[in-house]
Amino acid sequence: MSAFGTVFAPEMSLTRYEQGQWSATEFVSSDSLNLHPGAHVLHYSSTCFEGLKAFKHQDGSINIFRMEQNIARLIQSSELLSLPPVDAEQLKQMIVDIVKRYAGDVPLPPGSMYIRPTHIGTEASIGKAAAPSNTSLLYVLLSPVGDYFASGSKPLRLLLADETRCASHMGVVKSGGNYASALQPILKARQSVQADQVLFCPGGDVQETGAANFLLIDGNEIITKSLDSSFLHGITRHSILTLARDRGMTVSERALSVDELLERAQKPGAEAALSGTAAVLTSVGTLIHDGKEYAVGNGEAGPTTNALRQALNDIQWGKAADTHGWLTNVC
Ligand SMILES: Cc1ncc(COP(=O)(O)O)c(C=O)c1O
Questions:
Q1: Is residue 151 predicted with pLDDT exceeding 80?
Q2: Which of 69, 172, 173, 224 has the lowest tally of Cβ within 10 angstroms?
């Protein structure tokens, strides 16, 4: 099977922002873009993106999960990067139309169609280091995907690092530079301790990994960092916390220190997981800190993690009622 995100639908939907307005949406080939080498994005990183999924249900219908939240986050990222203002209605139509056009290519569960809206500053001006791009491109790429973590249900190994993933006011922005700045710590963690991911814990504050949020499950309680500007406000995180509340669990959104995490993770029955559009909800089996390894609970995937993941998948896959109105039917 091809690696996650390496296969694309042949076309994407695209609009350009010029002279204060967006052009009519076009469907264009997804294999190239014509960009000036001096484009703002290539020098000053005026770029943000989103990741969401469309699912095929047993009746053949195609349904997108929590599209409005992803659009709202792209609008916020664009604002915080001083990119031109995204038109929510147009973007919604761009997503729905391209997914409808390639409805036949949406894989059956556990696969899905990954949707990647992308917004980049295109103005050809290398003099604009301290000024925004007046022009931009917004396009929606599609990529049929299977399971993100090729290891399937194998619990992950996380290295707890006393580092920031990105500038502390930029964590809330889904922008390329944040991922680039996290790469060196992640590569070193893979090499030095065979970690799957780094859990960024600057000053002992448990934040998130390079591409997912972190949740600790202790009995009937689920604990995760409360929202601030330092990390990405995951839509899966919000969905899982909502489903946990539905099940009568206590949801604690608050600061979690490395010390408390290590202490609670070692209790029998403790569970930890990563949440994200790609990761869904993936168990964490081992935490690595200061050269020591700590098994989370018994080191295996826990029953609460599995049940919450199943509850989320059941809604996404049309096997349980969509009681929160999270799905948009496309066709
Ligand atoms: C840095 C980071 N944190 C958290 C998440 C989880 O966000 P979401 O659940 O909206 O996919 C992502 C994206 O998947 C991410 O890239």
A1: no
A2: 69
Q: How far is the centre of ligand 1, averaged over its atoms, from the C-alpha of 36 (Å)?
A: 30
Q: 279 alpha carbon to ligand 1 midpoint, in Å?
A: 9
The pLDDT-based confidence of 153 (bands split at 50, 70, 90) is: low
* Whole-prediction pTM: 0.97
Domain 11-145 of CATH type 1.10.1040.10: no
| Ligand 1 atom showing the smallest separation from residue 174 Cα | 16
Q: How far apart are CA 296 and CA 317, in angstroms?
A: 29
Query: Ligand 1, atom 15: nearest CA belongs to which residue?
Result: 211
86 touches 94 (CB < 8 A): no
Cα 18 to ligand 1 centroid, rounded to whole Å: 30
> Where in the chain are the domains?
11-145, 156-316
Residue located nearest, by CA, to atom 5 of ligand 1:
212
Question: Which atom, in ligand 1's list, is nearest to the CA of 70?
Answer: 10
Instruction: Read off the pLDDT band of 152 (50, 70, 90).
Output: low
Q: Report in angstroms the alpha-carbon separations of 39 from 7, 117, 248, 323.
A: 26, 19, 51, 45
Does 161 have pLDDT greater than 90?
yes
- In short, whether 51's Cβ falls inside 6 Å of ligand 1 is yes
Q: Is 74 in the pocket of ligand 1 (CB under 6 A)?
A: no
List of residues 6+ apart from 48 with CB closer than 8 A: 74, 77, 78, 81, 83, 118, 119, 173, 174, 175, 176
